[in-house]
């Protein structure tokens, strides 16, 4: 871990970056890294005053002492991978942590002075009932966190889930769970600001908003992705290869792509539709505007002030809507 952290710092120093508005430690379980190592990486990053700094955490690896180091290093936000607060659902998801550790982590964050806490949840696991999902939502709301990310369980090719039809989620059940999520979180004062994300007003994740508005970002570490002026690039995938290249003074970039104006316009529509702001009708060509009108009549989109955005029903069919408009 120490060698990898050293390589990350070397890559950061080689980038000559302008001050960052946000920093996000993700891509696995950064909280497994010794807190002092993470703090050392963060110290290498020049940030604007008030920059948001998030660390993804496994509840089982969070302690009060770790969070105190994070806070003192400049971390302003943590994201806890809770997934569920019901033990048998966690088991179905292949997760080993104890829901009590989620409660303890939220309490420890408050003691450490980290006020912004996100909790990740996943709905649709085999054996999860409507009551189980409601129980998870109720408990997370009761913890008073400022942000909740709730994702439908998805089937990726080649995974154990894909190979076992009995464990695959049901679309209609997931749709009902999503509607339940919207009702519970909005009643608790958390506003949906992206299809799978709810936050108290003003406490949205600034870093993720950067992605959804096609902003620029630099990814550091193995398999990290970056974007600038329509060009995307990504580092080599394995830690060993990444460390070897960086320590030899070579570029760790493993590949890149350049988006043309048309591709960027399509992505702006696809990503914009994921947010309540939606997209400007003027950004759509005549066929897409006609399609938007049809989707509005079907109750999947709503038009406000020359823009179209998803309704709740539209969010459930977001990919289909995006395809039709692009």
Entry summary:
The chain is built from 14 helices and 13 strands. With 326 residues, the chain is α/β, with parallel strands linked by helices.
| Strand content range | 15-25%
The counted number of beta strands is 13
Q: Please outline the major beta sheet.
A: 7 strands, mixed
Inertia-based shape: globular
Q: CATH topology of the largest domain, anyone?
A: pyruvate-formate lyase- activating enzyme
* Strand arrangement in the largest pleated sheet: 1-2-3-4-5-7-6
CATH superfamily of the largest domain: tm_1862 like domain
The CATH architecture of the largest domain can be given as Alpha-Beta Horseshoe
Oligomer: single chain
Low-confidence stretches: none
Look at the helices and sheets and give the structural class: alpha/beta
State the end-to-end CA separation.
Answer: 44 Å
| Estimated helix fraction | 40-55%
Rg, nearest Å: 21 Å
Number of spatially distinct domains: 2
| Number of helical stretches of at least 4 residues | 14
Q: What is the CATH class of the largest domain?
A: Alpha Beta
**Rounded mean pLDDT score:** 95
Q: Secondary-structure element order, as H and E?
A: HEHEHEHHEHEHHEEHEEHEHEHEEHH
